[in-house]
């Protein structure tokens, strides 16, 4: 009878302590400092984590991770971007553009001081432009000026995305401009009716896309 009386108490205790038991998991440690901690400080032979490669999965939540790719283009670590609804690489690349002096209605210069509509940064993989910033001289030239972020192929625009300065600067962290492998990217100063802009610099942030 004592066993029978003790059984409900045991079940009750298990119920109350389930959250505590399973709230943190430690591998290689008995005192994890996070919900999951893998301590491999004493093992120099094996990595802490391995994600097997896979085909593009269906993303459903911000922060999901997957290693995606193929032998031709290589494998990369991607994180699902719930806002943009696509898998984007964890790594990010910066594309700088600039132009010296007072300028208007002209392409901006890329690496090697090149300025021409038919050249730009050629992309090796599919990707997405996610951020852009603009800064111009706040003591000379137009303080409000429109720039076009152009995705191009051959001598044609695939897409053109405007960004306009206010008080000589602009920031857009919500861009979602897709491009394909082989496209090239440049930036053009628009003839928007305002005066010349002085010493503009445009910076784009790019991630690879699945």
From TrEMBL:
Signal sequence range: 1-23
This protein's UniProt keywords: Signal
Protein's name in the database: Uncharacterized protein
Organism: Wocania arenilitoris
């Amino acid at each position: 009878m004592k066993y029978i009386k003790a059984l409900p108490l045991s079940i009750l205790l298990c119920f109350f302590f389930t959250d505590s038991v399973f709230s943190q998991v430690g591998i290689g440690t008995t005192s994890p400092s996070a919900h999951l901690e893998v301590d491999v400080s004493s093992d120099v032979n094996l990595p802490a984590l391995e994600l097997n490669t896979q085909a593009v999965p269906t993303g459903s939540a911000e922060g999901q991770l997957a290693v995606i790719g193929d032998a031709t283009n290589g494998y990369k670590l991607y994180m699902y971007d719930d806002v943009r609804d696509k898998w984007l690489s964890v790594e990010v690349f910066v594309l700088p553009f600039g132009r010296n002096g007072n300028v208007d209605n002209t392409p901006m210069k890329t690496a090697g001081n090149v300025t021409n509509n038919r050249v730009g940064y050629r992309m090796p993989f599919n990707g997405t432009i996610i951020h852009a910033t603009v800064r111009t001289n706040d003591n000379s030239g137009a303080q409000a000026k429109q720039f076009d972020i152009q995705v191009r192929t051959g001598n044609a625009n695939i897409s053109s995305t405007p960004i306009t300065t206010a008080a000589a600067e602009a920031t857009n962290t919500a861009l979602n401009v897709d491009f394909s492998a082989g496209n090239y990217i440049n930036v053009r100063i628009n003839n928007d009716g305002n005066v010349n802009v002085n010493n503009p610099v445009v910076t784009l942030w790019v991630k690879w896309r699945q």
